[in-house]
Amino acid sequence: MDRPHYNFSFNTLNEYTDFEFYSIGNKGTIKKIIRFIKIDLEDFYSLSLFDVFSDGTLSVMSESKNGDMKIVLATVAKTIEKFLELYPTKKVFFSGSTHERTRLYRIAITQEIENIKNLFDILGITEDGLEIFAPNRPYQGFIISLKAQ
Questions:
Q1: Distance of alpha carbon 15 from its chain centroid, rounded?
Q2: What CA–CA distances, in Å, run from 81 to 28, 75, 77, 90, 101?
Q3: Are strands 91-94 and 44-52 parallel, antiparallel or unpaired?
Q4: Is the pTM of this model over 0.90?
Q5: Given Cys at both, which of 44, 67, 74, 124 links 3, Cβ 3.0 to 4.6 Å?
Q6: What are the φ/ψ torsions at residue 9 (nearest 5 degrees)?
Q7: Which Pfam families does the UniProt entry name for this protein (predicted)?
Q8: Are 43 and 93 in contact (CB under 8 A)?
Q9: d(CA 60, CA 110)
Q10: What is the dihedral angle through the alpha carbons of 41, 18, 140, 102, rounded to the nearest 10 degrees?
């Protein structure tokens, strides 16, 4: 994953890890947080991407339309890589907050699959369960983990 991405800082609390960065584009500078939240399944964390408003509230539904979507997606990918480097036994679940965003994540994974398939195991979530990620298949979400050594 050698695409341009934003620099980020991170901190880990008891139940989650935050990666903070700033989107810089045609609408200005927008603070964003990528949060990995511990969920009830053992070794699983859920990833969420938030816009941070001036009053400190977070939103997964806002559309910043800052013209830097590819850089933001590359930043999300880099934070997954860093998170799994810090916590190699964990698994990361994510889906988009809308069907369109989930599709966007699928497209981004498809574009990078050749570069990441030797480092990560990627599963797609369907109505029928889990399957090894396949390009051009509709998914409800994704699970990424480090490839077993």
A1: 17
A2: 27, 10, 6, 11, 20
A3: parallel
A4: yes
A5: 74
A6: -115, 160
A7: DUF6934
A8: no
A9: 23
A10: -170
User: 88-129, pLDDT tens digit by residue?
Assistant: 999 999 999 999 999 999 999 999 999 899 999 999 999 999
Q: Could you tell me the two tokens for 20?
A: 């903070």
Written as one letter, the residue type at 125 is I
**Pair of tokens at residue 139:** 């998914």
- Per-residue HEC secondary structure of the chain comes to CCCCCCCCEEEECCCEEEEEEEEEECCEEEEEEEEEEECCCCCEEEEEEEEECCCCCEECCCCCCCCCHHHHHHHHHHHHHHHHHHCCCCEEEECCCCHHHHHHHHHHHHHHHHHHCCCEEEEEEECCEEEECCCCCCCCEEEEEECCC
Calpha distance 105→133 (Å, rounded):
12
